């Protein structure tokens, strides 16, 4: 799978202690800064190691590979080191396979394995906030503390990472236990054992190779009991998008990957309850964040239209109780006051995610239709979240996130029941039934 030039580079280099991988596609504007930070980090924190930076490019048309190779390394004298500096090799190759980030990672991992690297680190190519310290924080736990997987922990704007906040973090935490705050953060540190385990899997021609690679890496690490931790990296400033813009393809592929992994690793999550903290490296501090503009009205319109066009598809996955609630919300979304009062509560949202996960497991023929229909539901939840958290500061939003996560954990038995029994009663139905019994007893 490696290009001839990459194979030749491995033959020339023979071995490397640390491999830094940077996947890219048309990132000439930002990748130079990322490479400079990586070079400076390696020179400052790991001068005694043999290091290599690999750019795995997806056919950029804007000169991204040339930008990588043309970066001038920082003047070593500015780093104020007393130890001798070893050189940092920089290589840029096109990857082969299914277009997407996963294929780029596959080439990086293969080269890291062939070079017998002791640690591998991957970072996004559109980062504007990366510093040399990121390299230290992602690599050192692997080299010196025997961790296999280092996940990033960032401060992000409250409307950045809405797929993570609304679905991936609470679901992954409820299923597998460790509280990994950014399971699809994009910047990771990996051990040799972790890299080689990834290469043993046969998922590289699936959605994992497109947008599902980050959650696949995280889930594989936690579900297969590798040693995991987090590294506090400060702010993540990158080319963020309005969550109301068209993220359909990304959402569908990430969600499909999550549900596929849920099916694969059922023995790892089925009997697990609650969650636990995940060790955090680095000094936590407050940072300024760039605001993100959000178009709530567009999201509410998309949600209401989804009810009109897709409710027959939603019925495949969703219970009658959930559908009834969504019908009322769709009517409310069309009202002028919706932008101030529209609300999808945590119980309803958690039920939607769990019902879709169980339906994906039980009905393989309908998976494509169901995944394509999920976007308006996600838009409705994000609109609700934006409206609710508008007056809250970052700490209050994080407290609000904790309540959502606890709801996912509390309702996990419902997912376990649904997994085998599509007619499992919705928690709302049970509550109503219990209330009726209580009233009857009073009568």
What does this structure look like?
By secondary structure, the chain is of the alpha/beta class. 54% of the residues lie in helices and 10% in strands. It folds into 2 domains: 278 residues, Spore Coat Polysaccharide Biosynthesis Protein SpsA, Chain A (Alpha-Beta Complex); 147 residues, no CATH class. The protein contains 18 helices and 8 strands. The chain has an 8-stranded mixed β-sheet, with helices on both faces. It is globular and about 65 Å long. About 2% of the residues have low confidence.
User: Residue ranges: pLDDT <50 for 5 or more in a row?
Assistant: 75-85
CATH architecture of the largest domain: Alpha-Beta Complex
CATH superfamily of the largest domain: Spore Coat Polysaccharide Biosynthesis Protein SpsA, Chain A
What's the shape?
Answer: globular
Mean pLDDT: 89
Radius of gyration using CA atoms only:
23 Å
Helix content: 40-55%
Distance between the termini: 74 Å
> Which strand order does the major sheet show?
3-2-1-4-6-5-7-8
Summary, kept brief:
This protein is α/β, with parallel strands linked by helices and 443 residues long. It contains 18 helices and 8 strands. The model is unreliable at 75-85 (pLDDT under 50).
Protein topology:
Elements: H1 4-13, E1 18-24, H2 28-45, E2 51-57, H3 64-69, E3 88-94, H4 101-114, E4 119-122, H5 132-145, E5 149-155, H6 162-176, E6 188-191, H7 192-200, H8 213-223, E7 228-235, H9 248-264, H10 266-269, E8 280-281, H11 296-317, H12 320-333, H13 338-341, H14 346-362, H15 367-389, H16 394-410, H17 412-420, H18 427-442
Parallel strand pairs: 1-2, 1-4, 2-3, 5-7, 7-8
Antiparallel strand pairs: 4-6, 5-6
């Amino acid at each position: 799978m490696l290009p001839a030039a990459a194979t030749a580079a491995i033959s020339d280099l023979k071995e490397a202690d640390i491999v830094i991988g940077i996947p890219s596609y048309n990132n000439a504007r930002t990748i130079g800064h990322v490479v400079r930070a990586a070079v400076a980090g390696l020179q400052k924190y790991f001068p005694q190691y043999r290091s290599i930076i690999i750019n795995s490019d997806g056919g950029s048309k804007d000169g991204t590979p040339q930008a990588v190779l043309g970066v001038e390394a920082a003047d070593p004298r500015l780093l104020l080191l007393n130890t001798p500096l070893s050189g940092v090799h920089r290589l840029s190759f096109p990857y082969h396979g299914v277009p997407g980030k996963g294929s780029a990672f596959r080439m990086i991992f293969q080269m890291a394995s062939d070079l017998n690297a002791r640690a591998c680190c991957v970072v996004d190519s559109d980062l504007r906030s990366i510093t040399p310290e990121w390299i230290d924080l992602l690599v050192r736990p692997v080299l010196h503390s025997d961790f296999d997987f280092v996940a990033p922990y960032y401060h992000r704007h409250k409307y950045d990472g809405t797929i993570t906040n609304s679905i991936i973090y609470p679901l992954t935490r409820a299923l597998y236990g460790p509280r990994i705050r950014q399971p699809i953060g994009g910047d990771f540190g990996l051990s040799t054992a972790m890299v080689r385990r990834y290469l043993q899997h046969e998922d590289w021609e699936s959605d994992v190779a497109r947008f599902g690679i980050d959650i696949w890496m995280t889930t594989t690490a936690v579900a297969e009991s590798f040693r995991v931790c987090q590294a506090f990296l400060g702010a993540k400033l990158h080319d963020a998008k309005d969550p109301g813009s068209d993220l359909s393809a990304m959402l569908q592929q990430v969600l499909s990957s999550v549900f596929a992994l849920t099916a694969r690793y059922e023995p790892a999550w089925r009997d697990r309850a609650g969650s636990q903290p995940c060790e955090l490296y680095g000094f936590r501090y407050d940072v300024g964040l760039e605001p993100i503009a959000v178009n709530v009205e567009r999201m509410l319109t998309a949600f209401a239209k989804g009810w009109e066009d897709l409710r027959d598809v939603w019925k495949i996955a969703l219970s009658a109780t959930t559908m009834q609630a969504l019908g009322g919300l769709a009517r409310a979304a069309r009202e002028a006051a919706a932008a101030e009062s529209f609300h999808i509560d945590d119980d309803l949202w958690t039920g939607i995610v769990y019902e879709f996960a169980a339906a994906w497991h039980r009905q393989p023929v309908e998976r494509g239709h169901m995944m394509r229909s999920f976007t308006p539901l996600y838009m409705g939840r994000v609109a609700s979240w934006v409206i609710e958290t508008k007056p809250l500061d970052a700490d209050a939003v994080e407290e609000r996130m904790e309540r959502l996560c606890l709801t996912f954990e509390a309702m996990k038995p419902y997912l376990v029941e649904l997994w085998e029994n599509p007619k499992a009663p919705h928690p709302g139905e049970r509550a109503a039934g219990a209330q009726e019994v209580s009233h009857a007893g009073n009568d």
